């Protein structure tokens, strides 16, 4: 089998894939390379290792050195193309679009060829608009934890608070912060979808992925789907087919 690796800023995920289908997957904290080294040392050698990495060069080097130590394999580092796998990249400089976002768009395009809004809630929140295989561009916001930490570090009277999907008004500072940051993401997604509806693109489904997606999923208006493995799903499709 091939392996595909999604190396994000917070989590490193990998999956065994064959013919575009995921057979199993694993996730560990990006900050702990020992878990990757131990798991890969025990695993059967994959045929290929395709890597979508938005994490820094130290993480990419960990992946490379661990693959060499375990199996003498050289990972293939993927980059976002201008066009491939049925998706046209909407960035002026295609390589600036994170490969995780491009892979999610590939998967979203297979699920909803007419169009979708892809929301990845991780260290950052990214929102990408895809209409009939054409990536219209996107938006980037701070992630939920990043917003909370920013408030805590930039103010004297606000402590770090956990994101809270409760809709009621906060009655103390931690609940006000926790609910406010979730409202910020939910409101941003609603505004983007309203803008699309004003252009005649109402009813476009929203695909939610990333570590924080579960916290906001019930607050996003339908049609919506919670798809935690969307990036790996796209990478699996990219591994199975030549770039068209």
From TrEMBL:
Q: Name one GO cellular component term.
A: cytoplasm
> Active-site positions, per UniProt?
100 (proton acceptor)
Q: Which reaction does it catalyse?
A: (R)-pantothenate + ATP = (R)-4'-phosphopantothenate + ADP + H(+)
Q: Look up the record and name the pathway of this protein.
A: Cofactor biosynthesis; coenzyme A biosynthesis; CoA from (R)-pantothenate: step 1/5
Provide the GO MF annotations for this entry.
ATP binding; metal ion binding; pantothenate kinase activity
Q: What is its EC number?
A: 2.7.1.33
Query: What cofactors does this protein use?
Result: K(+); NH4(+)
What HAMAP family has UniProt attached to this entry?
A: Pantothen_kinase_3 (MF_01274)
Protein name per its UniProtKB record:
Type III pantothenate kinase
- Principal location: cytoplasm
What is known about what this protein does? Catalyzes the phosphorylation of pantothenate (Pan), the first step in CoA biosynthesis.
- UniProt-annotated location(s): Cytoplasm
**Which InterPro entries does the entry link to?**
ATPase_NBD (IPR043129), Type_III_PanK (IPR004619)
Q: Where does K(+) bind?
A: 120
Q: Can you tell me which family this protein belongs to? A: Belongs to the type III pantothenate kinase family.
């Amino acid at each position: 089998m091939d392996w595909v690796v999604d190396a994000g800023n917070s989590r490193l995920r990998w999956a065994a894939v064959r013919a575009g289908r995921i057979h199993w997957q694993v996730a560990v904290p990006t900050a702990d390379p020992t878990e990757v080294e131990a798991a890969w040392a025990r695993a059967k050698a994959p045929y290929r290792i395709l890597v979508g990495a938005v994490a820094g060069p130290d993480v990419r080097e960990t992946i490379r050195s661990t693959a060499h130590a375990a199996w003498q394999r050289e990972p293939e580092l993927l980059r976002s193309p201008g066009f491939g796998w049925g998706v046209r990249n909407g960035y002026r400089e295609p390589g600036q679009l994170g490969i995780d976002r491009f892979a999610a768009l590939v998967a979203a395009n297979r699920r909803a060829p007419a169009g979708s809004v892809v929301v990845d809630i991780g260290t950052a929140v990214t929102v990408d608009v895809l209409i009939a295989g054409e990536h219209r561009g996107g938006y980037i916001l701070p992630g939920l934890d990043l917003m909370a930490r920013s408030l805590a570090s930039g103010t004297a009277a606000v402590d770090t608070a956990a994101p809270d999907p409760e809709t009621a008004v906060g009655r103390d500072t931690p609940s006000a912060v926790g609910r406010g940051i979730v409202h910020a993401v939910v409101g941003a997604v609603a505004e983007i979808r309203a803008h699309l509806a004003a252009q005649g693109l109402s009813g476009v489904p929203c695909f939610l992925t990333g570590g924080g997606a579960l916290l906001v999923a019930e607050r996003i208006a339908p049609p919506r789907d919670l798809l935690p493995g969307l990036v790996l799903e796209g990478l699996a499709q990219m591994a199975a087919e030549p770039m068209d």
